[in-house]
Amino acid sequence: MRVEESRREVEVTSGHDATTPRAPHRATCETQVEASLRRGTSASLGGHPDHAAPPTAHPHEAPARHTIAASSPRLVTVRRGSCYAPRAMAFGRGKVILLGEHGVVYGHPALAAGLGVGVHATARVSESQDDVIVARPWGVTARVGSDEPLALGLQAILEGMPSDRQSVHVEVDVDLPGGAGLGCSAAIGVAVTGALDALFSIERTDEERGDYSLRWERVFHGNPSGVDNAMAAVGGVALFRRGQPLQTVRAKKPLPLVIAHSGESSSTKEIVAMVARQREAETQRVDEAFEAIAALVNNAKLAVEAGDLKALGQLFDLNQMLLAGLMLSTEKIEELCRVAREEGALGAKLTGAGAGGCMIALAKDEADAERIREALAKRSPLTLVAMAGA
After folding, report:
1. Looking at the predicted structure, is the pLDDT value of residue 83 above 90?
2. Of 173, 197, 211, 228, which one is the catalytic site residue?
3. Is 164 among the catalytic positions?
4. Domain ranges in the chain?
5. Which of 22, 27, 84, 178 has its CA at a distance of 20 to 30 angstroms from the CA of residue 43?
6. pLDDT (0 to 100) of residue 42
C-alpha cells in the first residue's frame, strides 16, 4: 500500500505539555520480525503470523499534524459502567539523531532532538488475571506469557514493578512510522513505563524513566545505545553519551529540519549487529570512523549553541560520508540527500540505524525547509518539516 504524498509538519519539543487533541493514528513500529510485516502479516506487531495485518499497519504511514496531548504521566478517574476506576496516561516522543549514530553504541557522544509526535499509552487494572497490551492502530492484543514481542516487552517492564501489583491492561496509540530511525519502539517503551508508573504511584524523573524503559528496547533491539529512550522521555536537543546524564544543548536559533523516509525499512538490531561484525573484523578502521564522528558531534554542539547553521550543515555532510563508509547508507538515501542539497539544503544525512529509514536535511529557515520538503515529497512516501530547538 502506497502512502499518498502530502505535507506533514511536526514540532520538536522541549518537554512542555500541550493540549491539542490527537489525530487518528495510522502507523506501525519496527520489531524483531519486521520481515513478517513486509509480507503482510501482524506477527511483527505482536500478533499471530496467521492473522492478516490490518490495512493501517504500514511501516511508512504517519498521522496528520498535531501536537502532544500530554508529556508527563498522570492518573485520572474514568467511569466504567456503574463504577469509577483509575486510568493512567503517558506519552513517549519520537526522535531524530542529528549526528553520532552507531558510535554512541560504543561510548561516543551523539547529538539528538525529540519530536512532538510519538506514542500515547493508557494503563488500568485488568478485569482478568492476565497482563495485556493492546496496540490499537494495528488491532493487536498480546498477553504476557506468550512469545509475542509486545508481550515480551511488557513483561520486561513489569518485572521491575511492585510484586504485589494487580494485573494490568495497557493500550498504546502510535503516531510514528516504524523502521524509520525515528525511535518508534523506544517511544512505546517510555509511554508504557510512564503509564504504569502513574498507575502504581511510582515516582521517577524523566531521565530515570528513559533508563528504566531500556528493558523494553532490549527485547526489540538487543544492544540499544539508550539515546532513543532518553530523548523519548526528555525531549529537547541534547548531547547523549551512554551511561552518562543527558547534557541539554541550548540552540541559539531553531534548527529547520526536513525529514524524508526512504521507503525502505531496516531492523536496528540487525544493523547494530552488522556494524559490530565490521568492528570485530576491522577494529582500527571502524574505531577511527567512530572517533571522527565523535569530533563532528562535539563541533556540532558548538555550532548549535552558536546558531551557525552553515557549519552545522557541513558537519551533517561529513557525518554522512563516514556513515556511508560503514555501509550504512543506501542508493535511495544518497538520492534524497543529493536532491536536498540541490534544493539548497545546508547539509543532509541519514538518521538512526541507517540501511533504510529516514534522512534529514538542514535548511536555512522554515520557508526553505518547506521548499526542500516539496522536492523530496516527489521521491519519498513521507516527508516532515520539524523545527528543532524552537
Report:
1. no
2. 228
3. no
4. 9-388
5. 22
6. 25
